[in-house]
Amino acid sequence: MPVSFDLLAESLRPNPVWEINTTDTSLATTALKIAKESYPEIDSAYYLKKIENIIENIKTSLRDETEPEQILKTMNIVLFNELQFKYVQTGNLEYISLNKVLDTKIGNCVGLSILYLCLAEGLHLPIYGVSVPEHIFVRYDDGDFRRNIETGYEGMFTPDSYYINMHGKRISQASVKHGYYLKNLTVDEVIADIYLNRSIIQKEKGSIEAALKDVNRAIELHGNDAVAFCNRGVIYEKTKDTERAISDYNKAIELNPDYAPAYYNRGSLYATIEVIDKAIMDYSKALLLDPSSILSYYNRGVAFKMIGRSDLTIEDLSKAISLNPKFAAAYAQRGLAYAESGEPEKALEDFNKALELDPNNTEIYMKRGILHADAQRFDDAIKDVTAFIEFSPNNTFAYYIRAKAYRGKGDMQKSMEDYNKVIELSPRLAGVYFERGQIKNQLERTDEALADFNTSIELFPYNPFAYLHRGNTFK
Question: What class has domain 3-185?
Answer without folding.
Answer: alpha beta
